[in-house]
Amino acid sequence: MAQILAPSTQWQMRITKTSPCATPITSKMWSSLVVKQSKKVARSAKFRVMAVNSEYGTINRVEDLLNLDITPFTDSIIAEYIWIGGTGIDVRSKSRTISKPVSHPSELPKWNYDGSSTGQAPGEDSEVILYPQAIFKDPFRGGNNILVVCDAYTPAGEPIPTNKRHKAAEIFSNPKVVAEIPWYGIEQEYTLLQTNVKWPLGWPVGGYPGPQGPYYCAAGADKSFGRDISDAHYKACIYAGINISGTNGEVMPGQWEYQVGPSVGIEAGDHIWASRYILERITEQAGVVLSLDPKPIEGDWNGAGCHTNYSTKSMREDGGFEVIKKAILNLSLRHKVHIEAYGEGNERRLTGKHETASIDNFSWGVANRGCSIRVGRDTEKNGKGYLEDRRPASNMDPYVVTALLAESTLLWEPTLEAEALAAQKLALKV
Predict the structure, then answer these.
(1) pTM score, two decimals?
(2) Domains along the chain with CATH numbers
(3) What is its quaternary makeup (predicted)?
């Protein structure tokens, strides 16, 4: 990803008033993506909706209501509460009316949901409580409506097992971590699949496109598949207030990447989860399946990762390269701990091929994308900067990864003997 120089003030997790000229996303953006449409499906110039009868104006009425701006008529807003489901990677949401616009999650009420239906609670005691943690403008409904990222607790106030945000927040509130102002730039890769066959977008059904090479950052109908989705997602994230910093087509056709950051502390996880939710909604409207599988196609095809760029205040200051090397030493000693937390199915991706390091061996290098940790040429030249952890899979939990990086490099201390042996093995002088 392009080097990110400074964090946004968005990390305070507040939102600004919606611009009066801002409009929500409508389905007309996806018209170029729909390959086949039944002749029985009624159409309008702006919006396509499945309807039993169009002759009575069903579609036009639905379109009018979907695009209706309620702001001039009421102080009430719609809040879409978002949380992580039982698999640890699925996002769930439901809506509620709030009596007036809000600017901070503390102004929102807690809510609950049926945890037995998401694999997060037994049927005989199924209530799970949602705590609002971060808010974003809603690019789908527009107006003053909002998306609310929540974490989940038992009625007694204990975080449920799939609530990884709670522990991350504890780590990021540690005074040592706060003092170092950790920055993160996360590169989220994903794959777009055709709905019925679950085969990458643009690929011939049951077949393969030409070998990798022409597709990375490419343009053209025979090389780029799903650009409308990527661009719509980019704009939707900017509208929402997500700290998205770029996007590009990836090495495998039908695969894309976007970058979020630099983000400070817990903000990184909040923004990635909000951006994933928006991407799920956009692919839903486009009739395309979103996959975060780290190796969606076996064979000579790149997998999908979530490379995480990381720096602390000490790394960004003069002499920071020595601090980076000390952090790399710590990461080498906790390699197995990190790998276990870096995403399910990652062993299929981290093979030592396709710009990855082997899952079994820790390595680092300058400008080497085949290492566990990559350090940029500018960082080496300037003697300060950031490191890139290339091990996280595309389906990793950003709360887990960001907190673990801070914990391993700022709070965890190896023994002197282990440190010396690791430094010798990695040829580090710290």
Answers:
(1) 0.87
(2) 172-426 (3.30.590.10)
(3) Homooctamer.
